[in-house]
Amino acid sequence: MKSPLRISEWTPVHVIANKAECNIILENTDALKEIPLINNAPLDNFTDRQLVRFRGMVQDMRNPEYYFQQYEVKNIETEVLEVRCGMYTDTVQCLPHEEILLDSDKTQNMERHTCVVISTPGLNDWAKEKYKHSYCQSTKAASTHKRNLDDNNCESMDCSESIRKREKLLSNEDSNEMDTTEQDTKQQNIFSKEYILNFPIPMDDGKACIVKIYEDTALKLNEVIEIIGFISLDPLLSTIHDVDETMTEAEMSIQHPPVSLIPRLHAVKVIHLSKQEIENAPEIMSKAQLIRSDLHLVLSQLLFGDHLAADYLISHLLSTIYLRKDCLCLGTYPLNITHFPFTKYNTFTKDLYSFLSLFIEKSHLLEVTLENLNDFTLSPKKDYDCNRLTSGMLQLSDNTHLVIDETGLTTGQVSQAGRENYSTICDLINFQKVTYDFKFYKMEYDTDIPVLILSETKSFIPCQTQVALKIDAESENLYPRVLEIAKQYLKDGNRLTNIRQYLKHVKNVKFEFNEDIVNEIQSDFVKMRQTNKNVNVDHLHGLMILARLLSLSNGLNTLSTEYWKKAVEMEAQRLNRLPEKK
Length: 582
What we know:
The structure is a single chain. By secondary structure, the chain is of the alpha+beta class. The chain is built from 22 helices and 21 strands. The strands form six sheets. It has a five-stranded mixed beta barrel. Strand 11 (323-325) and strand 12 form a beta hairpin. The radius of gyration is 28 Å and the shape is elongated.
């Protein structure tokens, strides 16, 4: 009896012939670890049509394309007919002495969906390392497979003409290697590598793939997914597409980039990674208060001994949208921290961000200066010349924490682009929406991006919750030492791992509102309005969210009187610290 193939040895033919069995195996998360992850290795480590995995964000949705699901081939010399499958590949098998019978009843055209998936923007180094252990080192095999003909060209031009072009390219192995190399260089010279990769924010080790999907899968723009599929690395894919005379040179470079830069990936399975369960979730919840205590200690010291600010920052880190209703995004909790000693410690914003990036999986530091505000491209725009969605800096996946540093902002002339960028940031904070520019129309896309603003005084961006730091003199004087102690403290035991799991899990815990304390909430809010003229109806919404986050941060999934009272007390302290409005 023939032993079954290891999952790492699967081929397109094997998957097609054993679809049901393969689907069952792919449900096993341990089995998936045997499939190499291309995120963490150079493409040279992989061979054409190898089964691989790729984790990333859906950056663009392309038009569907037609392919031969199966096709009949005739041997011109022997008259022998053979039916072949065209799934999971960009090319068809058609040798010089064969022809494809396009009019055969056995030749079937089907449609496959295509999208562009890029490495997840803002993914922090420790999160990348977490996935590296599952990478199986691939042995670089010699490229001995036969070159095949691209199926799209078979549809658009006479097959024999395609073969003649192919024969000319393959007539000499050395010249073929030179031709494909020159083709890759030529295409990359039309646009820069960065422009072709089209990342929203810089990613030194980022990758992009053109993914082709054969089954109905509901994908959303900016969704984080994992694709298991066969990689297509044949360098002739770029060369053969030169026969498409309907495309401009610019569109050709973007739509059919060199596989050495952007490989094709034929999906066998797509896994949605938006909210994956943490294995030890019950344990995390059982010791939530202990973990929170560790996190609070670190943050309060980083914030110059300010315990109130640490409470607000923890609540912010746990915030996520749990319900959208009309124009409200229930659960979002943007925060503006001000009045830190930036003149004395001008690295404070970067120091704080470096610690936050140790705790959360995805984040980005956006330094807002007058020049940057005028020059930034924040919103994605449709480029009809290249037929693609050009990324903007705010094309980020959900739960990517955006930290805005305003300490370099100066007075000056704001351009029209700067005003548009300002409106874009305001819409993100207030409505959790980013407007995409499709030239002839604009479309709003929902986001879930927590925003933390660091500014010396109140931010120029409207943000309801401003926390003015109350500096402890001793903590301020020992600040450089505090940074070192905090790093060492986090290294002890599983402290840092626990904090990461805590922040990831707690924010997604299902929370129930306790109706029994409604009257108490109403009474306390009336008292707040009587004692502080700055309190308005919007503060009630903020108070409810804060009380919810405080309860969650302490391991509760219902609103308790204790944490409602604490939220009221915290708000009173926060408001009393703010400068009087003139």
